[in-house]
Amino acid sequence: MDRRVIVPEGTDPSALPFSPAIQAGNLVYLSGSAGIDEQGNVPGPDIVSQARQVMKNLSGPLHAAGSSWDKVVKVNCYLTHAARDFAGWNQVWKEYFPTDPPARTTVGNGMLRAEWLIEVNLIAYVD
User: How many angstroms separate the most distant Cα atoms in the chain?
Assistant: First the structure.
């Protein structure tokens, strides 16, 4: 099985201690992304704005691998305040997966920085 590092255009791989994504066979594994922009800032203090930013961040490596949102098979989500933010996460989730959603795990977990509310990683397939 071939293993290929996926680096979206405009990403400096030397600035990361991990690969943005790895393709192995017809599956692509995306590293976790927090709800922060390119400068490391949170787009807002609420789960909806940070969840939308996470999904935007994951779009780069997902598309660079030749996959798309409709090919996502598994998502893991980590929420800093799971009880409080679960509904907001579901709101954004439904924007990306309105029908036939992938398998998902959502758990409560502390983040590296207090203002980060969410981190998401995923697995998708490539034709």
Answer: 42
Encode pLDDT of 100-113 as tens digits. 999 999 999 887 78
Tokens (6 digits) for 89? 């996460």
Give yes or no for a contact between 44 and 37, defined as CB atoms under 8 angstroms apart: no
Report the alpha-carbon distance of residue 25 to residue 23 in Å, rounded. Answer: 6
Question: What number of other Cβ atoms are within 10 A of residue 56's Cβ?
Answer: 13
CA dist., res. 18 & res. 98, Å (int): 31
Nearest-angstrom CA–CA distance, 24 and 1: 7
What CATH code would you report for 3-125?
Answer: 3.30.1330.40
State pTM to two decimals: 0.93
The DSSP secondary structure of 46-65, one letter per residue, reads SHHHHHHHHHHHHHHHHHHT
